[in-house]
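Internal tracking record. Fields below are filled automatically when a chain is submitted to the structure queue. Please do not edit lines marked as system-generated. If the sequence contains nonstandard residues, flag them in the REMARKS field before resubmitting.
Queue: standard
Priority: normal
Entity type: single polypeptide chain
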Amino acid sequence: MSININNAGLKNANIDSKSSNRQVQSDAPAKPASVSQKGGDAVSLTSEAQQLSGLQEKAMNSSGIDQAKVDKIKADIESGSYKINVEQLANKLAQFESDMFSNGSNE
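SYSTEM-GENERATED OUTPUT FOLLOWS
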């Protein structure tokens, strides 16, 4: 069975860009936004909804990587001053394996 990896995530990318466009449009005003049409229908966004929309956009634009921390660790490794806590590493590896194998047997 072959897997097409060339189009992987393409559908989600389109959804994300549409979502992002909607968020940019809804973030414009700082007060509750109201949109009315000829039929008299109105939509109002609370300040909490606008704040949430702004946070979602900020999260989407973020890489999720703390570059300052990465740079410090790289510098410590290069200088030879980076210390590895082998006990903590062993505990985390054991916990990971335990979680992986216990979750796999329940499926």
